[in-house]
Amino acid sequence: MPVSAPLVAKLAVFGVGLIGGSFAAALKARGAVGEVVGVGRGRANLDAALKAGVVDSIAEDDRAALDGTDLVLLAMPVGQMAPVMARIAPLLTPETVITDAGSTKRDVVALARKHLARVLPRFVPAHPIAGAEKSGASAARADLFHGRHLILTPQSENDAAAVALVRHAWEICGMRVSVMDPDTHDRVLSAVSHLPHVLSYALVHELAGRANAERLFALAAGGFRDFTRIAGSSPEMWRDICASNRDLILEDLDRYRAELDRLEALLRSGDGAGLERLFADARDARNRWLEIR
Amino acid sequence: MPVSAPLVAKLAVFGVGLIGGSFAAALKARGAVGEVVGVGRGRANLDAALKAGVVDSIAEDDRAALDGTDLVLLAMPVGQMAPVMARIAPLLTPETVITDAGSTKRDVVALARKHLARVLPRFVPAHPIAGAEKSGASAARADLFHGRHLILTPQSENDAAAVALVRHAWEICGMRVSVMDPDTHDRVLSAVSHLPHVLSYALVHELAGRANAERLFALAAGGFRDFTRIAGSSPEMWRDICASNRDLILEDLDRYRAELDRLEALLRSGDGAGLERLFADARDARNRWLEIR
Q1: Model confidence, pTM
Q2: What's the whole-number average pLDDT of chain B?
């Protein structure tokens, strides 16, 4: 069999954490990348990535990282993206495609329009919806994205070839790709991810502040563990998400409070039939979701 | 080796669902019960229990079920407990100990004081904190209770021997036993179980009612699945729990809304440091809890 060239000859990952590291590991596992160079703030984390074979080298500097690079993945928290974009913008050559893995998209697009204006046709924003409480290169794994959703939010200026490359790379990682505009992305994620995280953090924080917190936690069971699993997520990352998607999260919080109003009214009036119907509708909607997943 | 008599020669389970069936299965698996008779509303469910060997027979009537019985477990939803108590009260003999597995305890104790007044010293209320979205005898398993918490809420009138028998039976099932009064039980469970269930149902119900619900659910991921797992619970059971623990759930809902007020203020004012601190405090409290579990 002839040896075919990999999809990406050289990949530079800025931010070799769970997402960046798993992207590199997945492409490597499928022979879709020739060389991976890692760039990041934490030396220990980069060394771990090198030792695990997630990256082939650690870049001396940005210029070395970007030299001859086909694809750049920006995989740091959204709050750290602006300075990295500003730093690399002058070093990017016309053959380099750039993508990101940021959890919010309106803000990343706005940052790119500001800092990456010169190379906008080749910046393709994306969000792989995958994660875990774990973080860092040592948590990276080649199968993290398998069967999960990738949301691509291409811009009108994008080169078709750049969009195709990014899409193809994530499909090779096993992701199911949806395309939407950044506003729709941020609305959807606010409802099914950002709001639940806020609600989960709020419950744990409220209970932890009570005088009898120790007894409460001692008797908490599996339902509590699952409801609060996302309250184990990175506070720094969720601070950034709340900052960048604040308006939509506040809208969703309003809707949720209105739902709690309705539920409280049913509770106060002792409307058992009404409560049972609400619970059954929720259960049925969730069961339908589990079936189509 | 001499053959020793089992702890319970004859056990009658009223309501052979997940909890009642698993209690019987656990005692059988450990040789702690001689004979198990099942009583319930649904014939198909009882037949399944018989076929699975969870019960040895299905009672012809209450008198047959209670004849020569050492231990009775009332394992139906709390909302169905009153009529069963009223029915069996005249048939109970002085050698029979009665316990229940109700999710709330103030109301069960009040019902027992009304309907089981004659045998109150031998009615020992308890709540095994274990469950799953699944229900019915076919979901029963001998290891359901292993390592979980059993809360015993003995009454001042209780015979010490009756309390010891109930405690011992649940310990044989592998449970860790705590003793508290019914009010404390209901307060603790409201905070770590009932409130989270209500919050989870509310989120799914609110999202399911939106025009773009299909798209929202299509892109929901693992965090959403875990947060909403308890919204897959039995609507009938949770209607009953909400009815019987209404005052305390409403108190906890008030506290939770106050926490959402604080969180919303941090969001609105763009207080990233305050949000990160709240999220970190919650994460740390949860991690400490996971360590001591």
Answers
A1: 0.91
A2: 94
Q: Which domain holds residue B130?
A: 8-180
For residue B186, give how far its alpha carbon lies from the nearest alpha carbon of chain A (Å).
11
Interface test with B, best of A175, A188, A279 (most B CBs within 10 A): A279
Mean pLDDT of A227-242: 93
The verdict on B39 and B110 lying in the same domain is yes
Q: Is B3 inside a domain boundary?
A: no
Query: Same domain for A122 and A206?
Result: no
Do both A28 and A118 map to the same domain? yes
Task: Please tell me which residue, B42 or A161, carries the higher pLDDT value.
Answer: A161
Instruction: Locate A187 and state its tokens.
Output: 């609305």
Beta carbons of B231 and A196 less than 8 Å apart = no
Both tokens of residue B276?
């990160």
**Does residue B52 sit in the same domain as residue B170?**
yes
Number of domains in chain A: 2
Given this model, what pLDDT does residue B156 score?
95
With respect to residue A30, please indicate whether it lies within any of the assigned structural domains.
yes
Q: Kindly list the residues from chain B whose CB atom is less than 8 angstroms away from the CB atom of residue A287.
A: 232
* Residue B134 predicted with pLDDT over 80: no
Q: Does A195 touch chain B (CB under 8 A)?
A: yes
A249 touches chain B (CB under 8 A): yes
